[in-house]
Amino acid sequence: MSTNRISQLQAYLSATPNDPFLHHALALEYVKLEDDATAKGHFEQNLSGHQSYVATYYHLGKLLERAGNTAEAISIYEQGMAVAKQAGDNHTYNELQAAYEDLAY
Q1: How many domains does the chain divide into?
Q2: Distance CA 6, CA 3 (A)
Q3: By CB neighbour count within 10 A (0-12 exposed, 13-18 middle, 19+ buried), where does 71 fall?
Q4: For the chain, does the N or the C end have fewer beta carbons within 10 angstroms?
């Protein structure tokens, strides 16, 4: 099922290549397939072009944690908290803060 969903998302992405939701959705599909390298690429594309897409920070941080990149995950959580705070997104801020504290302390 994931490969079919990936194909659909890639088709949508070819029409709108800069859509942060599509990159995020694709990254999550690749996470399900345990293709973290491809997932990371889509998350990083969001961060390079859509820093305000706050959901990316949590999921990228979790991916980095699984890979054992603790320092990088902490940095991503910190960046995400700053973006969420600036956007007034308290829910995402709290999720990022909890992930950060679980990892940093």
Answers
A1: 1
A2: 5
A3: exposed
A4: C
Q: Please, are residues 40 and 70 in contact by the beta-carbon 8 Å criterion?
A: no
pLDDT at residue 1 greater than cutoff 90: no
Kindly state the tokens that stand for 79.
Answer: 């960046």
- Close Cβ partners of 50 (under 8 Å, ≥ 6 residues apart): 18, 20, 56
Q: What confidence tier does 79 reach under pLDDT thresholds 50, 70, 90?
A: very high
Which range of residues forms the domain containing residue 16? 2-104
CATH at 60: 1.25.40.10
HSE-CB of 17 using CA atoms within 13 angstroms: 1
